[in-house]
Amino acid sequence: MAAIHSIAGSARERATGSNAKPGINANAISIKDCSLTFGQVRVLNQVSLDIQRGEFLSILGPSGCGKSTLLRLILGLLSPDQGGGIVHHVPREEIGIVFQKPVLMPWQTAIQNIELPLSIGPQRAKQSKAERREKAEWSLELVGLTDFRNHFPQQLSGGMQQRIAIARALAADPSVLLMDEPFGALDEFTREKLNIELLRLWANPDTGLNTVVMVTHSIQESVLMSDRIVMMSPRPAKVQDIVNVPLSHPREADMQELPEFLSTVREIRKQVKAL
Ligand SMILES: Nc1ncnc2c1ncn2[C@@H]1O[C@H](COP(=O)(O)OP(=O)(O)OP(=O)(O)O)[C@@H](O)[C@H]1O
């Protein structure tokens, strides 16, 4: 099916506005005809996708089709065995990731967990200890958890732990954030709250965050949050379709009652059934 709607105006503005300076590619990352096989199992089959600067892109597809594999490919943790490869138009160190499980160190406090990646590897030399602490405090404040800075993970709810994981990713100042089912383990109420919080962080000019790529199993979540939705086919996965979401920004939870929201959800459901 052809893309069913034109791209939302504000997304285009984000993609082609202040971020797309002359001479800078309008894409953040380009995936060119990539295939990947694990042993005898072909997981990705000639996947091509341009991830545009400034967009919120969701990836939807059947379980096991290769969505997480695609994120790992984008991050550079895996390499394609065939195809033109991945072109990063933004520096690799500007790409952050948030996983479904927050993976926090249980013996470290919230603020220490956020600081940790800033204090190891090449990141360490970039900032003094005081600067790292200041950055961690800043990102903790962004996710509204300053009062919980000295709490250990087990003293925090699942939603709070995931906000710490998001703060940890934001502390490294990513321009591109990859998210692998970040809210999949949360209850519906918390999930919807964090959906909107994440959109606010994406729109917040204080963060360098510009482009989000989110794997999700939820059609509603993908429509509420995204500018475009990539539909993957069953394994070996290829890009089946790209759906443009006709909702404006800023998004609000009650937009889920709009006819454009409902018709887009219906259209995607129809496509999912036909996979
Ligand atoms: N390191 C690996 N070695 C071998 N096979 C792997 C490896 N990683 C993933 N796979 C296989 O690749 C396929 C795709 O896995 P992947 O986790 O990318 O799917 P997914 O679409 O993210 O699944 P889900 O929606 O259930 O999270 C699966 O069959 C999985 O078993």
Secondary-structure topology with pairs:
Blueprint: H1 9-16, E1 27-38, E2 41-52, E3 56-60, H2 67-75, E4 85-88, E5 95-98, H3 110-115, H4 129-142, H5 158-171, E6 176-180, H6 188-203, E7 211-215, H7 219-225, E8 228-232, E9 239-244, H8 259-274
Helix pairs in contact: 4-5, 7-8
Bound molecules: adenosine-5'-triphosphate.
GO molecular function: ATP binding
Keywords: ATP-binding, Nucleotide-binding, Transport
Domain ABC transporter: 29-259
Please provide the ordered H/E string of secondary-structure elements: HEEEHEEHHHEHEHEEH
- Strand proportion, as a percent range, falls in 15-25%
Strand order, largest beta sheet: 5-6-7-3-8-9
Do you know the CATH architecture? 3-Layer(aba) Sandwich
Distance between the termini: 12 Å
Counting helices, strands and paired strands, the structural category is alpha/beta
Structurally, the number of domains stands at: 1
**Major sheet description:** 6 strands, mixed
CATH topology: Rossmann fold
Low-pLDDT segments? 1-20
- The CATH superfamily title: P-loop containing nucleotide triphosphate hydrolases
| Apparent shape | globular
CATH class equals Alpha Beta
Based on DSSP secondary structure assignment, what is the total number of beta strands? 9
The set of bound ligands, ions and cofactors reads: adenosine-5'-triphosphate
Radius of gyration: 18 Å
Question: What's the number of helices?
Answer: 8
Would you tell me the overall average pLDDT?
Answer: 88
Helix percentage range: 25-40%
